[in-house]
Design a protein that fits this description.
single chain; alpha/beta; Rossmann fold; about 55% helix; globular; binds NADP nicotinamide-adenine-dinucleotide phosphate; binds 2-acetamido-2-deoxy-beta-D-glucopyranose
Length: about 290
């Protein structure tokens, strides 16, 4: 009985918290003049996050591997009203280059308020694990270690500004999904690292917020190309996703679930009925199209 009461009351508290946060709003003056680095921002959700910050008058630094796309994103940020906009080219598979991104951002922007860790790469294809260690190592570098390197290099600036770290996770960072072993490993790693770091900040009263965004399937070009014919769930819009991420970051929320009703119930139930939740999620994969 006590157990059931505990579950029901935590459900209620969770829903109230969700309702409270979803009625809170942000205004441009909360962001104007802030210094923002967004990684993986040549396309996809990262590009949209850069535009959201730009619209509200932030100083924006974008980064990815492709200079031409980044130049276009910079131009659009300026049109939208960014205080300033710059880019730095980097391959996050190279930790020296990742370090350089945080250094360049702090140098160009004159400090840092928001470190938005969003890039995804490493080349692992969507499919069964066949023992390919190269794919695991490369994913670990691009999708996990570079996040930590960017954070390590930016830590001093973030402590000084009482800034924010935003980390893009996934349902696959909370529940193991098939056909994406390296991806799940990186996302679970990020969840561990940044939830631990968040506790340290709280305990030593550092006032640096850590927002982890737990996302479902989002309609970015790359995601749809990679898994569009392999999963049957419907994709949520990247623009709305980016707006929710920026709002959660500015409100210094510890976690964001987007789309909320698609993700949160699964995460809540996972510890109670892991086998059931696993089987439920298996239904979304088109096995004939997966190798
Ligand atoms: N879309 C979804 O369904 C979904 C679901 C859950 C979570 N998420 C998470 O949301 C975040 C954004 O996803 P997305 O779909 O927007 O990704 P995306 O469209 O594929 O964009 C990935 C970005 O990362 C950059 N990138 C790739 N490899 C890189 C490398 N080696 N070094 C530096 N930059 C690199 C890409 O630019 P270049 O190619 O120019 O380098 C691009 O700007 C990721 O963390 C992802 O895990 C997405
Ligand atoms: C760091 O980035 C700057 C700006 O793009 C570049 O000029 C410089 O060569 C980079 N340094 C390293 C060590 O990657
Ligand atoms: C990694 O990046 C650094 C600096 O950007 C560069 O000097 C070095 O050659 C790169 N290493 C590899 C293996 O590409
Ligand atoms: C923590 O930082 C935020 C943003 O910089 C600020 O609004 C807030 O007042 C700070 N809180 C404390 C307790 O210093
Ligand atoms: C708080 O923790 C951060 C991150 O670990 C560290 O850099 C900082 O020095 C600590 N501050 C204090 C006052 O202990």
């Amino acid at each position: 009985m006590a157990g059931i009461k505990l579950v029901l009351s935590s459900l209620l508290i969770g829903l109230c918290a969700h309702y409270f946060y979803s009625t809170e709003t942000i205004t441009p003056d909360m962001v104007k003049g802030k210094k923002v680095l967004v990684t993986g921002s040549s396309t996809g959700i990262g590009e949209q996050i850069a535009y959201k910050f730009a619209e509200m008058g932030a100083h924006v630094m974008v980064t990815a591997r492709r200079a031409k796309q980044l130049q276009e994103v910079v131009n659009k940020c300026l049109q939208l009203g960014a205080g300033s906009a710059h880019y730095v080219v980097s391959d996050m598979g190279n930790l020296t280059s990742a370090k350089n991104v945080s250094e360049e951002a702090i140098k160009k922007l004159g400090g840092l308020d928001y470190l938005v860790l969003n890039h995804i790469g490493g080349g692992a294809s969507f499919g069964s694990f066949k023992g390919d260690m190269e794919a695991v190592l490369s994913s670990n570098n691009v999708n996990f270690l570079s996040y930590v390197q960017l954070t390590a290099t930016a830590l001093k600036a973030l402590l000084e500004s009482q800034g924010s770290i935003v980390v893009m996770s996934s349902l696959s960072g909370r529940i193991g999904a098939p056909f994406s072993t390296s991806y799940c490993a990186a996302k679970f790693g990020l969840e561990g690292f940044y939830s631990s770091l968040r506790r340290e900040f709280t305990l030593n009263k550092s006032n640096v917020s850590v927002t982890v965004a737990v996302l479902g399937y989002i309609d970015t070009e790359n995601a749809v190309r990679k898994v569009g014919d392999k999963v049957t769930m419907s994709a949520s819009p990247k623009e709305e996703c980016a707006a929710e991420v920026v709002k959660a970051a500015v409100l210094r929320q510890p976690e964001l679930f987007y789309p909320f009703w698609g993700i949160k119930p699964l995460v809540l139930l996972r510890d109670w009925a892991p086998t059931l939740i696993g089987k439920l999620l298996d239904n979304f994969f088109v096995l004939d199209n997966i190798h």
